[in-house]
Specification:
With 297 residues, the chain is mainly alpha-helical. Helices cover 80% and strands 2% of the residues. The longest helix has 39 residues. One of its GO terms (biological process) is monoatomic ion transport.
């Protein structure tokens, strides 16, 4: 009897606790909160931005320290004030050879574009031919190996003797120095093509034009663009040295003219401008190469 009474005493408790279990709130979500995601993004941005800033800070610090021991090297503050003055009117024209730094940079970029474009028109097709036909590769490889290590400035007298003018000579130097990476990288891309592709083309009896457009060109685009990126960097490097010797309007001549005026702060500003333009050109070509690189898609 007592057992029955105990069972009856327990039943109301179980009945009353059932609705309470139904009203309990759901457990919180286990995913990261919005604040934690923002904190993670800021931490990733800091890791990407802080190291370059630290490197630049060290460079400026060393520069400021060295400038205190030199009578001719201006410090960062004097150079910054000179840059503000230069970029307050970068496109002034006071004469045929007296123009702002903006016009000088644009003139140099125009020469680079012409020399680089001519090198691409000649070097890329030649690279395809050398990679496709072993006889041509054996014939021209010694010539390329002979001419490629020649200093850019060694070609300048040849250009002046042939073209009798400074502008075509500078463009010729850019052309002859930037053509080699395009030839070699394009030929390397063609040579790296799997032999199975060519066997299939032979079975299908494809013409050389079909082989080029359907097999060689799509497969070698990453190599071609890598060669173009290297060639563009060389072209921008070469034009500054060429313009120092040929004169006229251009960032290289502008640097040499400021050296004749013993204006070291303007020279340092020009170095920063040259490096920034070269960095932008390289970054643009790298982005273009990544866009067309099927290996990273």
């Amino acid at each position: 009897m007592s057992a029955v009474i105990r069972l009856q005493a327990v039943e109301p408790d179980t009945v009353t606790t059932a609705p309470a279990a139904a009203n309990t709130p759901p457990p919180p979500e286990s995913g990261p909160s919005r604040a934690s995601r923002i904190a993670g993004g800021l931490a990733a941005a800091g890791k990407a931005v802080l190291p370059p800033i630290m490197g630049l800070a060290v460079l400026v610090g060393v520069w400021a320290l060295v400038s205190t021991f030199s009578d001719y090297l201006p410090g960062p503050r004097a150079t910054f004030l000179a840059a503000v003055e230069l970029f307050s009117d970068p496109f002034y024209v006071a004469g045929p050879n007296d123009m702002g730094i903006g016009w000088n940079v644009l003139k140099s970029l125009g020469r680079v574009a012409l020399g680089f474009g001519l090198a691409a028109l000649v070097g890329i097709p030649l690279g395809f031919l050398l990679g496709r036909f072993s006889l041509l590769s054996k014939a021209f490889n010694p010539v390329i190996s002979l001419l490629r290590p020649v200093s850019p400035l060694a070609w300048l007298p040849i250009g002046l003797a042939v073209f009798k003018a400074a502008d075509p000579a500078a463009i010729f130097v850019i052309f002859i120095c930037s053509i080699w990476p395009m030839i070699l990288n394009t030929a390397m891309g063609v040579a790296a093509l799997p032999q199975d592709y060519m066997n299939v083309a032979r079975v299908l009896q494809l013409s050389e034009w079909k082989i080029f457009t359907k097999i060689l060109l799509p497969a070698t685009v990453p190599y071609v663009l890598t060669g173009a990126k290297l060639a563009l960097g060389i072209a921008w490097l070469v034009i500054v040295a060429s313009e120092m010797l040929t004169g006229g309007v251009g960032i290289g001549f502008w640097v040499w003219d400021e050296w004749n005026n013993l204006n070291m702060s303007h020279i340092i500003v020009a170095i920063v401008v040259i490096g920034s333009v070269g960095l932008a050109l390289e970054a643009g070509m790298a982005k273009l190469a990544q866009r067309f690189d099927y290996r990273h898609q």
